[in-house]
TrEMBL record:
Organism: Gallus gallus
Protein name according to UniProt: AP-1 complex subunit gamma
Any single Gene Ontology cellular-component annotation: perinuclear region of cytoplasm
Domain GAE residue range list: 701-816
SUPFAM superfamilies (UniProt xref): ARM repeat, Clathrin adaptor appendage domain
One Gene Ontology term from the biological process aspect of the record: intracellular protein transport
UniProt lineage: Eukaryota, Metazoa, Chordata, Craniata, Vertebrata
Entry keywords, A to Z: Coated pit, Cytoplasm, Cytoplasmic vesicle, Golgi apparatus, Membrane, Protein transport, Transport
Function: Subunit of clathrin-associated adaptor protein complex 1 that plays a role in protein sorting in the late-Golgi/trans-Golgi network (TGN) and/or endosomes. The AP complexes mediate both the recruitment of clathrin to membranes and the recognition of sorting signals within the cytosolic tails of transmembrane cargo molecules.
Protein family: Belongs to the adaptor complexes large subunit family.
Membrane topology: Peripheral membrane protein
SMART domains: Alpha_adaptinC2
């Protein structure tokens, strides 16, 4: 049989292929020749054939039929055969294939070989693909090589020991005696791998971490090595861009970070060397920046001195001025993590951070925006909002929603005055109204309602804002509501904050009628406008007949919502005109609530989405049943029963309150809502069980808990209790935990179940979920299941995290049978 072609010739031949089909044909032909050679047990060219097979494997073609040939090469006495055999084993074998166990004895023999290079091949292979069984069998040989005086073998043995510890953590103590003298080695390769081994042991075992801190005095040794690296002169063997062995420096800094975390003595011992690294490292090259970044992370993670932390933040501030986009992004991300603990130090770099909002890179721009919101406080709110509003005007559409949401939250928290607050939110609605969160409209309406002295100013500003421009639907909705409530102030020209404008009653009605007929107006916006016109019938004196005519026209509208409202308003004019002034009087000042109460559908630009109303809707006179019914729309489908509120919903204190029962079939709200909800029969326990006392004294046998939600670091667990006395009642206790590095605030949990069930949410234990799983929020849900049907639930979660408002919906269908059977 002719000699097979060499690897170099095969590569040259394959590269001449013009199409993939031609290449595939060449590979198949060569594979057939290799198989024939393997069948004939051709020992002469086995090494060459396996090498060609590995090249084909790298190109993505199957090469599994060469696995046993690799084992034969490993068993050979020739070094060239062993080299290709071990390389093939690392590429073609892994612990999922039993054939790899056949090479255990060969590796054991080679680990005891007289030639260091053969021992090195065996160590590399074991450290690359050794299974837990192989690691248990060969750990003794690895530990023996770790104690040898040969630095070539020690560095490979250290890395192999890392793999052994990852596969079989209980073997960690075997390597402990060998680690004592590793850091005294002069060879940088051994030092590097030794630090990797020590890092792995400290990360995997708290006991090992405590041992190295106290008994081994590891920190002083690491400090000595790091100091020698910084102070040493030029060494061509280890120099990278003028810095001595930056890879070893980075590894040592990472290990120091682990040792100094939550330990005062270790942190104090490394403060000086960290300061030296931070001040002596050259920043003109990327290598120096990498070391400085690791130094900053270490300073922030240990219990360092305040001056050292300020130095670290100043380094990040210098990174923001770097031309490299990656370095700027890393700096912004690191500052965002530290802004909560070192707020004042980060504030010094505020102008540089704001400048990053103008960066062309979208990832840098987003991080800069998040950090800017984190820096807003009562002292700088005016300046920061000015910059962020400018950013909102010019940023890409994908930023507008998050930016608008952040401005709303910051303005609500730090507003210096109500007028400034209202002006800021109106500016956002004017420039980016189509992108605002769905709860922006009710929140602004609540703010305006409570700012009694600003009513005339606000209605005048809103009237001028929507003249001829109805493109920003949330702005038009707020303007329509305000004109309906305070139209008399607009016409009378009572504004003191700015020069009043002269507006007639007919001009106001012209604007609202234009909103009604505009093609840009969504159905919800038209509902706002029609209700506003109806309210003006009690504010205006000269245009009541015109209002009656407009309302009667929409009694035949093709929009069912508008038609229903118009018919109800016509009934007010015709049958109950004597009650109209009392029913349409101004809304009272409202208190803002932040409970897990009802939700309502809010529409933005005609697209229906869900939003939790943190305020009682100022434009609504809904009964509790109607508010709960809105949760049906929130969670979709017609077979969902609403949450029964845990506390009664107070009606607005109006002079017409006692008249509502007379108008039973009328929906007298001031905003578009769904049809009135059916009456919900509530079992006595749902009304009486709101106290903090235990619900049951006779709890049934244990029911397994479930994880209902686990995403983005937020985890929701359900635990269950059932009573032997009330078997149709299930009490679910939710526990919400947060594994991220920042707290989740303003957490709201909501749920809905099918109509055959009844559900009640009690108040949560808190609205803040602590970071790092350091605490939980608990909340109790009571479910009545009289028909013993399988329990299904839809949940909605809203919270603020890292300066952004988060919202998610999920369905829970994995309830254990014991919870409902």
């Amino acid at each position: 049989m002719p000699a097979p072609i060499r690897l170099r010739e095969l590569i040259r031949t394959i590269r001449t292929a013009r199409t993939q089909a031609e290449e595939r044909e060449m590979i198949q032909k060569e594979c057939a020749a290799i198989r024939s050679s393997f069948r004939e047990e051709d020992n002469t060219y086995r090494c060459r054939n396996v090498a060609k097979l590995l090249y084909m494997h790298m190109l993505g073609y199957p090469a599994h039929f060469g696995q046993l040939e690799c084992l034969k090469l490993i068993a050979s006495q020739k070094f060239t055969d062993k080299r290709i055999g071990y390389l093939g084993a690392m590429l073609l074998l892994d612990e999922r294939q039993d054939v790899h166990l056949l090479m255990t004895n060969c590796i054991k023999n080679d680990l005891n070989h007289s030639t260091q290079y053969v021992q090195g091949l065996a160590l590399c292979t074991l450290g690359c693909m050794g299974s837990s069984e192989m690691c248990r069998d060969l750990a003794g040989e690895v530990e023996k090589l770790l104690k040898t005086s040969n630095s070539y073998l020690r560095k490979k043995a250290a890395l192999c020991a890392v793999h052994v510890i990852r596969k079989v953590p209980e073997l960690m103590e075997m390597f402990l005696p060998a680690t004592k003298n590793l850091l005294n080695e002069k060879n940088h390769g051994v030092l590097h791998t030794s630090v990797v081994l020590l890092t792995e042991m400290c990360e995997r075992s708290p006991d090992m971490l405590a041992h190295f801190r106290k008994n081994e005095k590891l920190v002083p040794q690491l400090v000595r090595i790091l100091k020698n690296l910084i102070m040493s002169g030029y060494s061509p063997e280890h120099d990278v861009s003028g810095i001595s062995d930056p890879f070893l420096q980075v590894r040592i800094l990472r290990l120091l970070r682990i040792l100094g975390r939550n330990d005062d003595d270790s942190s104090e011992a490394m403060n000086d060397i960290l300061a030296q690294v931070a001040t002596n490292t050259e920043t003109s090259k990327n290598v120096g920046n990498a070391i400085l970044y690791e130094t900053v992370l270490t300073i922030m993670d240990i219990k360092s001195e305040s001056g050292l932390r300020v130095l670290a933040i100043n380094i990040l501030g210098r990174f923001l001025l770097n031309n490299d986009k990656n370095i700027r992004y890393v700096a912004l991300t690191s500052l965002l993590k530290t802004v909560q603990t070192d707020h004042n130090a980060v504030q010094r770099h505020r102008s540089t951070i704001v400048d990053c909002l103008k960066d062309l890179d979208v990832s840098i721009k987003r991080r800069a925006m998040e950090l800017s919101f984190a820096l807003v406080n009562g002292n700088n709110v005016r300046g920061m909002m000015k910059e962020l509003l400018y950013f909102l005007d010019s940023c890409e559409p994908e930023f507008k929603a998050d930016c608008a949401s952040g401005i709303f939250l910051a303005a609500e928290k730090y507003a210096p005055s109500k007028r400034w607050h209202i002006d800021t939110i109106m500016r956002v609605l004017t420039t980016a109204g189509s992108y605002v969160r769905d709860d922006a409209v009710p929140n602004l309406i609540q703010l305006i309602t409570n700012s009694v002295e600003m009513h005339a100013y606000t209605v005048q500003r809103l009237y001028k804002a929507i003249l001829g421009d109805y493109s920003q639907q949330p702005l038009v909705q707020v303007a329509s509501w305000c004109i309906g409530e305070y139209g008399d102030l607009l016409v009378s020209g009572q504004c003191e904050e700015e020069e009043p404008i002269q507006v007639t009653e007919d001009e106001v009605l012209d604007i609202l009628e234009s909103v009604l007929i505009s093609n840009m107006s969504a159905s919800v916006t038209r509902g706002y406008a029609l209700t506003a016109i109806m309210k003006l019938s009690t504010r205006f004196t000269c245009t009541v007949n015109r209002i009656k005519k407009v309302v009667s026209i929409y009694g035949s509208s093709i929009d069912v919502e508008l038609q229903q409202r118009a018919v109800e308003y016509n009934a007010l004019f015709k049958k109950y005109d004597h009650m109209r002034p009392a029913l349409l009087e101004r809304m009272p000042v409202m208190e803002k609530v932040t409970t897990n109460g009802p939700t309502e559908i809010v529409q933005t630009n005609g697209e229906t989405e869900t939003a939790v109303l943190e305020t009682k809707p100022p434009h609504s006179g809904l009964q509790p049943g109607s508010q709960a019914n809105d949760l049906l729309d929130l969670l979709g489908g017609n077979d969902i029963t609403p949450v029964i509120p845990t506390a009664p919903t107070s009606k607005p204190a109006s002079a017409g309150g006692e008249l509502l029962d007379l108008l039973g079939d009328l929906n007298l709200t001031g905003s578009p809502v769904s049809a009135p909800a059916p009456q919900i029969s509530q079992p006595p326990f749902l009304l009486d069980g709101l106290s903090s006392q235990p619900l049951f004294n006779d709890i049934a046998a244990g029911i397994p808990s479930i994880t209902a939600y686990n995403k983005n670091g937020l985890k929701i667990d359900f635990s269950f209790e059932r009573s032997n006395t009330y078997p149709s009642v299930t009490v679910i206790t939710i526990q919400a935990s947060n594994s991220t590095e920042l707290d989740m605030t303003d957490f709201v949990f909501q749920a809905a179940v099918p109509k055959t069930f009844q559900l009640q949410l009690l108040s949560p234990s808190s609205s803040v979920i602590p970071a790092f799983n350091s605490g939980t929020i608990t909340q109790v849900i009571k479910v009545l299941n009289p028909q013993k049907q399988q329990l299904r639930m839809r949940i909605k979660l809203t919270y603020n995290h890292k300066g952004s408002a988060m919202q998610d919906l999920a369905e829970v269908n994995n309830f254990p049978p014991q919870s409902w059977q």
